[in-house]
Every structure is written in structure tokens, then in C-alpha cells.
């Protein structure tokens, strides 16, 4: 059962009370649904995926140490994670109201600022590793 298919009469706590392997599989399904939704509805997520598709293989091709490679890949994945969280914030704010409100703007601006910092982190880590003297 996907979150979008829940009717108002169902109790969300009943869904959370499931345990064991069933819960793990349900959680994996929800996670995949979230990735699918981000890919379909979020242009910024698709752009970051393209960046990741270029940078992650490049990190494995470059002659860097294992720790440097882990950092290079990690910051790219972190930017994808931040974009997912930013998109979730935007969806919740829009779900509450499309009315312009200072707190809605602040929430969206804070999410955007987090993503900007994640992109600066990619730039900084990659630059420091690639352009620092050996």
C-alpha cells in the first residue's frame, strides 16, 4: 500500500505498528516510491542525478586514495539527500497552503540554502582533492 492510496478512515498508527521483515519491505517500497516521485516531479533532482552520473564514475577513474574517493562520492550522494529533503519540505508547505506566507517562504528558502551549501561542499571537496599539491 502506497502512502498516496491511504483513505482518511485508516489509522496511520496501524501502519507503523507492523514489525519485522514486512516492515523492512514496506519501508523499502516507500523509499523507492519517494525516489520515483522525486525523479518524476523534481527537475533539480534529475539535474543532480545527471551530475552524480558523471561525477561518481569519474571519482573511481581518477588516481586518488580510497578516502579521497569516498569523500568525492559521499558529497555527491549528500547533495542528492539534501535535495530529497528540500523537495519534501516544499511539498509539505504546498500541501498546507499555496498562499504566500512569510513562514512558507522561510521554510522553502532554508531548504534551498541547504542545497546551495551541499553544492558548495561538492565544489570544495572536489577542488581540494584535485587541485591540492601532492
What do these coordinates show?
The protein has 134 residues and is mainly α. It has a domain at 42-133: Helix Hairpins (Orthogonal Bundle), CATH 1.10.287. 80% of the residues lie in helices and 0% in strands. It contains five helices and no strands. It has helices spanning 12-16, 20-41, 43-61, 66-96, 102-131. Helix 3 runs antiparallel to helix 4 (66-96) and helix 4 packs antiparallel against helix 5. It is globular, with a radius of gyration of 19 Å. Keywords: ATP-binding, Cell inner membrane, Cell membrane, Kinase, Lipid biosynthesis, Lipid metabolism, Magnesium, Membrane, Metal-binding, Nucleotide-binding, Phospholipid biosynthesis, Phospholipid metabolism, Transferase, Transmembrane, Transmembrane helix. Its EC number is 2.7.1.107. A divalent metal cation binds at residues 42, 90. Its cofactor is Mg(2+).
Write the CATH architecture name of the domain at 42-133: Orthogonal Bundle
Mean pLDDT: 90
The description of the largest β-sheet is: none
The top-level CATH class of the domain at 42-133 is Mainly Alpha
The helix/strand series, from N terminus to C terminus, equals: HHHHH
Contiguous runs where pLDDT drops below 50 for at least 5 residues: none
The total of beta strands comes to 0
| CATH topology description of the domain at 42-133 | Helix Hairpins
Count of DSSP helices? 5
Terminal CA distance reads 53 Å
Binding site for a divalent metal cation: 42, 90
Cofactor: Mg(2+)
Keywords: ATP-binding, Cell inner membrane, Cell membrane, Kinase, Lipid biosynthesis, Lipid metabolism, Magnesium, Membrane, Metal-binding, Nucleotide-binding, Phospholipid biosynthesis, Phospholipid metabolism, Transferase, Transmembrane, Transmembrane helix
EC number: 2.7.1.107
